[in-house]
Design a protein that fits this description.
The protein contains 20 helices and seven strands. The protein has helices spanning 4-8, 10-14, 37-46, 50-57, 71-74, 85-91, 146-158, 181-191, 204-209, 211-224, 240-246, 252-268, 290-299, 323-331, 346-350, 366-383, 386-389, 396-407, 415-427, 435-447, and strands at 95-97, 169-172, 197-200, 227-230, 234-236, 273-275, 280-281. Helix 7 (146-158) links the parallel strand 1 and strand 2 (169-172). The protein binds iron/sulfur cluster (SF4).
């Protein structure tokens, strides 16, 4: 019997990338994890093994096949599904090329001095980024070759003719492939695949490390009509203090090297290479200081953030099972029962992805809290997303800010410029001032003239 409460959770309806039904009531749940993680996690880990699937289907185990074997590598892949209607085909759904795991970053969080004395028992990830909630068990035996697994799956999906399920867009799940991307390009060409798009989601340092191989792969792809897309590349934060807390190990120098590298690819392979220029960024955590904000604002041109101001609204998603949540718990005073301001819900509402399991938190620095409160409203007034604005539907400060900007013809003023002015004004203050007075002061300075009152 499916867990109806889980299925009814809006995140499953609103992001139906995948849906896992817990059909076997004998699967014991992990009581340490809150819903929906507890329900999903156990079945998710097990569902990559042969034995689990056969039990789930209610059929006998296969003689000679170890139930503990991974499905990927043990069974022949097949893609018999058909996309129904034009709409689905237009979405161009990806086929995952399975193998390994999607992130190869394993820096131990316990070795980070900031986490000394923090209880990391049963955190979702004890290695990698401290905020990451991405559960990523191996989906194949660790010793199985990434290229062999890819060969088998691409052949099944594309040869002798393209499966109706495939639109030629492949998500390369296995993080090991990037380190062999030139060999992967040769494999694709050797197989004679029709022109396809391959998505990878690497870390910045992996792209830098694979530069020579990427150069070769892109030349081969360009000559044969294939394309490569780097996505979900995260910087997270350039302030050394925030970055260290994230256990991220990325700095501005490496970000600039990466951007220079992908700029070159965009220039040399315009039909072949694609990358989201806006990199993943978490501007706010409970510990954020005005100095941290200043570092990010100073670097935003280098980060190519000019195109979108969403990063000015991006808060840490404090997952129950994340190491950084344990850090906040240990420190005390940062986790709260409910967010103190609707601006905390702006991003998730804009994305229609209400993550109800997140732990609400508050800023330690009241001046940063005020900066956040103001700039999210100002960005929302620029983006005017109905779903995002809904969180401010009853908000008097939001409505007043809209009237003030409109009456003074300032709706179009650069939000980064406003953010810089807000940050500077707050840095001059010992204690935060009243929000409306602060906004009038900042807008007057930016406009260079007295404002019309509203
Ligand atoms: S945030 Fe990205 S790089 Fe960091 S651990 Fe998670 S998947 Fe890996």
């Amino acid at each position: 019997m499916p867990d109806l409460q889980l299925l009814a959770a809006p995140q499953y309806f609103l992001t139906p990338d995948s849906l896992l039904l817990r059909v076997d009531p004998t699967i014991s749940l992990d009581p340490a994890l809150p819903p929906p993680f507890g329900q999903v996690q156990r079945a998710y880990d097990l569902s990559f093994r042969v034995g689990w699937l056969l039990d789930w289907l209610g059929v006998p185990q296969i003689p000679g096949v170890n139930p503990e074997d991974w499905l990927v590598g043990a069974i022949a892949p097949s893609y018999p599904a058909t996309l129904l209607g034009d709409g689905l085909a237009r979405v161009q759904p990806l086929l995952k090329v399975l193998g390994g795991r999607p992130c190869g970053y394993h820096q131990a969080i316990a070795r980070n001095p900031l986490y000394e004395g923090v209880d990391l028992t049963d955190v979702r990830r004890s290695h990698g980024c401290s905020f990451c909630n991405w559960s990523m068990p191996d989906v194949s035996a660790p010793q199985a070759s990434a290229l062999d697994l890819a060969r088998e799956q691409l052949q099944a999906a594309e040869l002798p003719s393209r499966s109706p399920r495939s639109v030629g867009h492949y998500d390369l799940y296995d993080s090991r492939i990037l380190a062999h991307i030139d060999a992967f390009a040769e494999l694709v060409i050797e197989l004679g695949l029709p022109p396809s798009m391959f998505y990878v989601h690497p870390r910045i340092d992996e792209v830098i490390g694979a530069r020579k191989k990427l150069d070769r792969a892109l030349q081969r792809f360009a000559a044969t009509g294939h394309r490569l897309f780097l996505h979900r590349v995260g910087v997270e934060n350039l302030s050394p203090a925030e970055n260290a807390r994230f256990n991220k190990a990325i700095d501005l120098e490496r970000v600039e090297t990466f951007l220079e590298q992908i700029d070159g690819y965009h220039r040399d392979f315009p039909e072949t290479f694609f990358c989201h220029k806006t990199l993943g960024y978490i501007l706010y955590t409970p510990w954020t200081t005005l100095d941290d904000l200043q570092i990010s604002l100073d670097a935003c041109d280098a980060l190519a953030f000019q195109g979108s101001n969403e990063w000015l609204c991006s808060t840490l998603e404090m997952d129950e099972g994340a190491a950084i949540t344990r850090l906040a718990e240990k420190q005390g005073g940062l986790l709260v029962d409910a967010y103190e301001d609707p601006a905390f819900l702006y991003m998730t509402s804009s994305e229609f992805n209400f993550r109800r399991w997140l732990r609400p938190w508050r800023f330690a620095d009241a001046r940063v809290a005020l900066f956040f409160r103001m700039i999210v409203r100002l960005v929302a007034l620029e983006l005017r997303r109905p779903s995002g604005d809904a969180v401010f539907a009853q908000d008097e400060l939001f409505a007043w800010s809209a009237r003030l900007l409109e009456a003074n013809d300032l709706l179009g003023v650069s939000r980064v410029r406003l953010a810089r002015a807000l940050c500077s004004a707050l840095r001059r203050q010992e204690a935060p001032q009243e929000p409306k007075a602060l906004l009038i002061q900042v807008l007057t300075q930016v406009a260079g003239r007295p404002l019309r009152a509203v």
